[in-house]
């Protein structure tokens, strides 16, 4: 953590939380093969929701309120979400060290941008067609498992995956998250976001409309940072020789990225043991995106260092791969004037965009 390169590399590689948005609207037949996760079906048909009940902040933009057309064509008679947002979290390993107190992170999220309990989550989903969930693997520590069990009963909003929580299994966790999401829901995008990122949920519907229109498959703040060839660095890449040079291929920063449903489904159709795994999750996912010929979209609104009128995701970019001190900053941000800017600059206006740093060649078709 002392060296400059290492700190920089944290940004490059640390992808504990990613958001996947699924965009592609495939002409689908029946949805009966997809079993919604408990409660989803019932929630989506609720109509008595008033956005101001949802959260003290209130005012979620529904798809209908945004000026962007959300879908190229309608998928009739299929209950479909705009996005599944998986907030990647972990087990508390050290209660005293806020960096590793994931329970405290979830608590502060529930006090800020993440709906506080299952009924708030249900109402949010019914009004926005965005499903939010914490995503968590398994622990061998019975007490840790029990703690999460209680938290889950109290607040809801957990997707549990059959994978041991550990840094080196993050890629497997992402893959399982995609698999479970694809098997359970039907949406336009999958958002993978870390639990130390401030998300402007109220801007997601408008952003999703823009990504749909662009036909994006892989949306995030793109980078192509230095490859660490020495084992003394945390982000060391043992397979560096395969990559052909000093820099990685272009891929999205790990703290938050979005995948179209189409590309997420493609990934989950492949045999996991046939895929290439690099040391870091964000690099690995970027490699799959390259192989699958996805449409990359450099979305700088997903890594803004402060709440601006364009920010969708905010963290201490590029200093940390998340908020450096999430427990403190999340609360302060939530109550700051900047983070309370309206979702859109004015009635009937579109969500302002930022110019990309990486301009990709438009792929035909
Ligand atoms: C759920 O959270 C909301 C605030 O977001 C609160 O008003 C409501 O009382 C909570 N419901 C339960 C059952 O705790
Ligand atoms: C991740 O999954 C791959 C493919 O199934 C497997 O070979 C590998 O051992 C797993 N890695 C970890 C750290 O569990
Ligand atoms: C934000 O400010 C309100 C009013 O002062 C306070 O009640 C609330 O606890 C604050 N929220 C957070 C997350 O600090």
Automatic annotation (TrEMBL):
GO molecular function annotations of the record: galactosyltransferase activity
Family per record: Belongs to the glycosyltransferase 31 family.
Signal peptide from the UniProt entry: 1-32
Cellular compartments annotated: Golgi apparatus membrane
One of the record's GO cellular component terms: Golgi membrane
Protein name: Hexosyltransferase
EC number: 2.4.1.-
Pathways involved: Protein modification; protein glycosylation
Keywords: Glycosyltransferase, Golgi apparatus, Manganese, Membrane, Signal, Signal-anchor, Transferase, Transmembrane, Transmembrane helix
Principal localisation: Golgi
Record carries keyword Transmembrane: yes
Cofactor dependence: Mn(2+)
Membrane topology of this protein: Single-pass type II membrane protein
């Amino acid at each position: 953590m002392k060296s400059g390169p290492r700190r920089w590399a944290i940004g490059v590689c640390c992808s504990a939380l990613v958001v996947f948005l699924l965009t592609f609207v495939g002409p689908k037949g029946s949805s009966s093969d997809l079993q919604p996760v408990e409660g989803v079906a019932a929630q989506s048909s609720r109509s008595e929701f008033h956005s101001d009940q949802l959260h003290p902040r209130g005012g979620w933009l529904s798809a209908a309120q945004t000026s962007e057309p959300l879908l190229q064509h309608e998928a009739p008679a299929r209950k479909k979400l705009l996005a599944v947002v998986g907030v990647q979290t972990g087990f508390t390993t050290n209660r005293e060290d806020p960096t590793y107190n994931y329970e405290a992170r979830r608590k502060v999220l529930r006090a800020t941008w993440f709906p506080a309990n299952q009924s708030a989550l249900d109402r949010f989903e019914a009004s926005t067609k965005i499903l939010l969930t914490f995503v968590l693997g398994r622990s061998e520590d019975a007490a840790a498992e029990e703690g999460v069990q209680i938290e889950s009963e109290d607040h809801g909003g957990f997707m549990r995956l059959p994978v041991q929580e550990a840094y080196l299994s993050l890629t497997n966790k992402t893959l399982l998250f995609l698999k479970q999401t694809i098997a359970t829901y039907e949406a336009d995008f999958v958002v993978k976001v870390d639990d130390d990122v401030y998300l402007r949920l109220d801007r997601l519907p408008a952003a999703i409309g823009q990504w749909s229109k662009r036909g994006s498959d892989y949306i995030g703040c793109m980078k192509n940072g230095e490859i660490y060839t020495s084992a003394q660095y945390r982000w060391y890449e043992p397979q560096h020789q395969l990559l052909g040079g000093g820099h990685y291929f272009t891929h999205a920063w790990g703290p938050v990225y979005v995948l179209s449903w189409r590309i997420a489904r493609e990934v989950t159709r492949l045999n996991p043991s046939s895929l290439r795994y690099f040391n870091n999750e964000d690099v690995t996912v970027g490699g799959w995106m390259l192989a699958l010929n996805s449409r990359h979209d450099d979305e700088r609104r997903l890594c803004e260092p402060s709440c601006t009128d364009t920010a969708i995701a905010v963290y201490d970019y590029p200093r940390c791969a998340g908020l450096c001190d999430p427990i403190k900053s999340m609360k302060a941000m939530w109550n700051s004037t900047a983070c309370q800017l309206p979702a859109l600059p004015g009635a009937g206006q579109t969500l302002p965009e930022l110019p990309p740093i990486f301009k990709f060649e438009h792929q035909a078709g």
